[in-house]
């Protein structure tokens, strides 16, 4: 299936897997139906630049993926915008695990949360999915502010984080540098005559433009002296093996503790800024620390562990999550607006992860159930 628009297909082929290997993650669907979901899901890779330089998802309408021009993903019901009178709005922010990469509209965490709230008798709430690929809590803070700038105010906001905040512990300068290079080149050409600008464009095309454009998933390991030991393939395999058994922060040594402290400090800063904006606008907020395949996950809940060869930086979650549980989520563990969902998948007799991090419908529903228990008393 070379040339498939969805990058996941090329990735599973690169590690010797096939589309049929995804069947356990999509109970009841045929390989052809999974392929349709993946082809629709590829549209989420089309990223427009939004306010504050954020990358969103282009509006689209397909059988399984529908993104509204207002920037949220539909839950499969054709959600109204603005919403109906008398209905309160819960905005959910997060990365691609919140957006629901490579699952249908109704199978995302926000969609399952809306369904579970209705089952709990909370029909007066509409859940809007503002997840976007590769977002960390810092990006979500800016997305939240951008909506407030437009006068769009939810009645409650939920921020689901953990994986990307661990993944981007060391930042993502390569994409920033590439985009700035293209921008500066265009500015330069605007000051030239037509022929000079064309010649300059072709010179750039032979160098910068001929290489691969970095993606939002590229990262910089920064201080390789402490980052590199955590993402060798042996270290990643050890982290996966430790996911289903207790381990303290010493299992990952000083490098793991340093990564965890860095991640948690940055997350704390994002939380503080979100809280400040929410307080000013009188919006209740809830922060949820999400499940990941590197913690409290049984091997049978994952189906494509070889993919972690291609995404070794995801293993940063292992020291972060074990450190947080050993140390009680410093400064957040007892906070009334924080909930730890990292063990939400325990006991789930189904595939939880359809690739390196994205949730299946069964896992999204399990997370939604746990969230209802936390959110209902606040609604």
TrEMBL record:
<dbReference type="InterPro" id="IPR013830">
    <property type="entry name" value="SGNH_hydro"/>
</dbReference>
<dbReference type="InterPro" id="IPR036514">
    <property type="entry name" value="SGNH_hydro_sf"/>
</dbReference>
<dbReference type="GO" id="GO:0016788">
    <property type="term" value="F:hydrolase activity, acting on ester bonds"/>
</dbReference>
<feature type="domain" description="SGNH hydrolase-type esterase">
    <location>
        <begin position="92"/>
        <end position="189"/>
    </location>
</feature>
<protein>
    <recommendedName>
        <fullName>SGNH hydrolase-type esterase domain-containing protein</fullName>
    </recommendedName>
</protein>
<dbReference type="Pfam" id="PF13472">
    <property type="entry name" value="Lipase_GDSL_2"/>
</dbReference>
């Amino acid at each position: 299936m070379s040339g498939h628009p969805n990058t996941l297909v090329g990735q599973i082929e690169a590690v010797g897997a096939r589309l049929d290997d995804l069947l356990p993650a999509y109970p009841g669907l045929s390989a052809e139906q999974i392929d349709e979901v993946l082809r629709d899901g590829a549209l989420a890779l089309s990223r427009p630049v939004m306010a504050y330089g954020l990358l969103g998802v282009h509006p689209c309408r397909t059988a399984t993926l529908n993104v509204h021009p207002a920037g949220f993903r539909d839950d499969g019901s054709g959600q109204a915008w603005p919403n109906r009178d008398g209905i309160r709005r819960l905005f959910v922010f997060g990365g691609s695990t919140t957006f629901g990469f490579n699952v249908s509209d109704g199978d995302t965490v926000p969609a399952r949360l809306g369904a579970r709230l209705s089952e709990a008798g909370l029909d007066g709430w509409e859940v809007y999915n503002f997840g976007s690929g590769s977002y960390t809590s810092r990006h979500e803070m800016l997305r939240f502010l951008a909506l407030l700038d437009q006068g769009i105010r939810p009645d409650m906001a939920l921020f689901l984080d953990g994986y990307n905040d661990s993944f981007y512990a060391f930042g993502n300068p390569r994409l920033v540098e590439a985009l700035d290079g293209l921008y500066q080149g265009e500015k330069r050409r605007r000051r030239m005559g037509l022929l000079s600008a064309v010649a300059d464009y072709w010179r750039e095309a032979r160098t910068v433009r001929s290489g691969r454009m970095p993606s939002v998933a590229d990262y910089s390991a920064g201080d390789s002296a402490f980052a590199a030991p955590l993402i060798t393939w042996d270290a990643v395999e050890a982290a996966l093996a430790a996911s289903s058994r207790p381990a303290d922060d010493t299992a990952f040594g000083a490098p793991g503790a340093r990564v965890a402290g860095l991640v948690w400090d940055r997350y704390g800063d994002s939380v503080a800024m979100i809280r400040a904006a929410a307080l000013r606008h009188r919006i209740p907020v809830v922060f949820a620390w999400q499940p990941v395949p590197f913690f409290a996950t049984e091997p049978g809940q994952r189906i494509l562990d070889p993919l972690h060869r291609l995404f070794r930086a995801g293993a940063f979650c292992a020291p972060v999550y074990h450190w947080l549980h050993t140390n009680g989520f410093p400064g957040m563990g007892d906070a009334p607006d924080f909930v730890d969902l990292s063990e939400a998948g325990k006991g789930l007799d189904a595939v939880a992860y359809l690739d390196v991090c994205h949730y299946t419908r069964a896992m999204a529903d399990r997370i939604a159930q746990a969230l209802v228990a936390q959110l209902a008393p606040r609604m």
